[in-house]
Write a structure and sequence with these properties.
5 domains, globular, alpha+beta, disordered N terminus, about 35% helix, about 725 residues, six-stranded mixed sheet, four-stranded antiparallel sheet
């Protein structure tokens, strides 16, 4: 039995166990036992349920504050864990406010993580853990999905508006990060079964899917890049099918991650193409054809995702795949009967799903630079699964409500000056909120395209060019041909000038309206109301105007955003709408804290003896006699270093190394790499296919084991002479 087939059988058992957990979470008077033979996902719980997954046991972990203060040093040392997730807001005059911006509950739930496997994976007390995602797997068992909101709050715990207002452009850029709540990335979290290093043991673990695909190599990150873990919270209408929707979302995550491209301008400049249910369905159609289409149709679909307007950044990947998983069941009705794809393409897609789960290479993994994606299980939806929007009657909703600049600002004020919390001052914070909002105004107008500097510059430049051309035209010695071409140039510049002046006039009119609405918002925000509910009631009509002005400026999604902070705000909850205008909410799971700063109070017995073979060094452009054969050869002296970073000998017999062209090296029988040792492969080695063929302009090397399973891929860029590219993630044990 292959690892992948073993993984599938275990996963099926895990899903059944999860259904039982969900059932046990119901109170006796509100739940009934599913009929005999009923499958997971079909009425796993009737009535009110407490959740699909058991909560994390806080008693398991103890945080070492001294080590955390070393990881996240600040102006003053944190005295308690919550200090790392609290920001001090300073104004030029007046009191400071301490805002717990990244707190999702009164108490922090700790989730230890580590990106490694091996003897060096230990907790804060030196206890061997070996498997870096072992503790995360308790919160995300196989098949479970979630989201890691990565942020820099622990490193940036002071927001000084006085310094920002005096700091000019760099300060304005810094404020933009706080507008986004210091949330800078979203990782898609998936519970899997995966091999522990190369020990051969299959373990329950957790991986991430990201855009860009190779980000963190499918793991989580270093010790100082903090994160908060959340997972889907389904409405009551979906209680019986929650596991099936989760399966559908997970498959969408895998598929969209494979076909999508990461944009160059992802920091607010990339439009949100999937901003409506119809647009999401369009994305699903193109995704299915990109995976399972043929010929020109497949090429067309893959080009769709490479078009600038349709590129997908990290949080957008969460938005698109989750919305797709809720709106389009991967079944006959959802794809074929709806008219999205033809029957033959649907059948091929289903075949690829099965092949992927059997461990066979398919576009799900062939198009993905994340080697851990191979362990994500894909599913086709049961025939009875319907779009969640049909069950709720909310046909205009997506998984998460796209934000305009107005919502982004509102979210910033809500988290950083939380007047909803009477413990922090309540309505007494009104003047402070208004002062901060007023200070942010120039940057907001610029972000909304309300800055007239661009058009003023265009007008000046056109006027200067017209004046220069008119001087040329007045020259008595100008030829007739030159006179004609110069006049044509003047006409073109005058047309450009008129257009810029018209744009400026339109901008001035729109800015006048924006200024008026901004003044109204400022008045409401700066007024102390009877309570927070009264404040929200007064704010609602002017915020509706603000959203309309700040929203999309066309049919391409420009003006809509799903930044990482959007998921943060959903997880915090919203007034009278715990789903914040989306089809689902998000449930707080815990704060990711690096294992090196956490002691596991009940360490489990572990086996630390297993190999870990990986690519280590690549030298594509040699200018020395590295193989010591007496001559310098551009091909023969190329080399690749393979290392065993584990604690047991590793048998690499029958393994191979491929590049983008094909197989370049096959490991001969009897190749054993001792722990802590390396094997150097030169281009002159007779086991290569006519040399290593390392491309000087960049290449991707892939390491496959004897079963043909992809172990690791390592890419490098343009090589300098004698430049060595090293795998920064892998560190061999000494």
């Amino acid at each position: 039995m292959s690892f992948r087939r073993l993984k599938l059988s275990r996963l099926s058992l895990s899903r059944i166990a999860l259904a039982a957990v969900a059932l046990l979470g119901c109170s006796e008077d509100e739940a009934t036992t599913p009929p005999a033979g009923e499958q997971p996902g079909e009425s796993v719980c009737v009535g009110k349920c407490d959740g699909l997954y058991a909560p994390v046991d806080d008693a398991l972990y103890a945080v070492d504050l001294a080590k955390l203060n070393q990881i996240w040093p600040g102006a003053r040392a944190a005295e308690k864990l919550s200090d790392f997730y609290t920001v001090e807001i300073k104004l030029p005059a007046g009191p400071s406010v301490l805002a717990p911006t990244h707190m999702f509950a009164d108490e922090i739930t700790v989730l230890p993580y580590h990106d490694g496997d091996g003897a060096d994976v230990v907790d804060a007390s030196g206890n061997p853990i070996v498997q870096g995602d072992r503790e995360l797997a308790k919160a995300f068992p196989p098949g479970a999905i979630g989201y890691a909101i990565k942020h820099h709050r622990p490193e940036r715990r002071v927001l000084d508006f006085g310094a920002l207002m005096a700091g000019g452009g760099s300060a304005a850029n810094a404020l933009k990060e706080d507008l986004k709540l210091q949330d800078t990335h979203i990782e898609l979290v998936v519970g899997v079964e995966r091999p522990l290093g190369q020990s051969g043991e299959m373990v329950q673990g957790v991986i991430t899917l990201n855009n860009p695909q190779n980000y963190q190599n499918g793991r989580f990150g270093n010790d100082h890049y903090s994160m908060v873990f959340v997972r889907p919270q389904f409405p009551a209408a979906a209680a019986g099918d929650a596991l099936w929707y989760e399966d559908n979302i997970r498959t969408m995550m895998l598929a969209f991650n494979a076909v999508s491209a990461f944009p160059g301008d992802y920091n607010g400049g990339d439009p949100l193409a999937a901003f409506s249910p119809d647009k999401v369905r369009e994305h699903v159609r193109e995704m299915v054809y990109a995976i399972a289409g043929e010929g020109e149709r497949q090429a067309e679909a893959r080009a769709f995702f490479k078009a600038q307007a349709n590129m997908i950044y990290c949080a957008e990947l969460a938005h698109v795949s989750t919305s797709a998983g809720l709106l389009v069941p991967l079944n006959q009705a959802g794809l074929v009967d709806s008219g999205l794809v033809d029957q033959a393409t649907f059948d091929r897609f289903a075949q690829y799903v099965q092949a992927h789960n059997d461990g066979i290479a398919t576009p799900f993994t062939q198009l993905n630079g994340n080697t851990l994606a191979q362990y994500v299980t894909a599913t086709m939806a049961p025939d009875a699964l319907r779009p969640l929007s049909e069950l709720t009657g909310e046909t205009d909703r997506l998984a998460f409500r796209p934000q305009t600049m107005a919502e982004i600002v509102e979210g910033f004020l809500r988290t950083h000056i939380p007047r909803s919390d009477p413990r922090l001052g309540g309505e007494a914070l009104a003047p402070l909120q208004a002062a901060v909002l007023a200070a942010m105004k120039p940057g907001l107008l610029e972000a909304m395209g309300m800055d007239d500097a661009l058009y003023q510059s265009m007008i000046r430049n056109a006027q200067d060019r017209i004046a220069s051309l008119q001087e040329d035209l007045a020259d008595p010695e100008i030829s007739e041909a030159r006179q004609i071409s110069t006049q044509q140039a003047i006409d073109a510049e005058q047309a450009a000038l008129a257009d810029a002046q018209a744009q400026l006039a339109q901008l001035a009119a729109k800015r006048n309206i924006v200024e008026q609405v901004f003044a109204q918002v400022l008045t409401v925000v700066g007024t102390q109301h009877a309570d927070y509910a009264a404040f929200r009631e007064a704010l609602a009509p002017v915020m509706a105007q603000a959203r309309q002005l700040a929203g999309p400026r066309g049919g391409d999604g420009v003006g809509y955003f799903v930044p990482p902070s959007a998921l943060h705000l959903v997880a915090l909850g919203c007034q009278e709408d715990d789903r914040c205008g989306g089809l689902i909410g998000l449930e707080y799971v815990g704060h990711g804290i690096h294992l090196s700063a956490v002691t596991v109070n009940q360490p489990e017995p572990v086996n630390t003896d297993f190999p870990y073979i990986a690519l280590y060094d690549i030298a594509p452009r040699p200018a020395q006699d590295y193989d010591q054969d007496g001559q310098v050869s551009a091909r023969g002296d190329e080399y690749i270093v393979v290392a065993n970073g584990g604690t047991a000998p590793g048998d690499a017999s029958g393994w191979r190394i491929d590049d983008l062209v094909g197989t370049r090296y096959e490991f001969p029988a009897g190749t054993i790499i001792q722990p802590g040792h390396t094997l150097v492969i030169y281009g002159s080695d007779p086991n290569t296919r006519g040399g290593l063929g390392l491309n000087d302009n960049g290449d991707t090397l892939s390491l496959y084991n004897a079963d043909g399973a992809l172990v690791e891929s390592l890419s490098y860029g343009r090589a300098g002479v004698d430049q060595v590219f090293r795998n920064a993630v892998f560190v061999p044990q000494q």
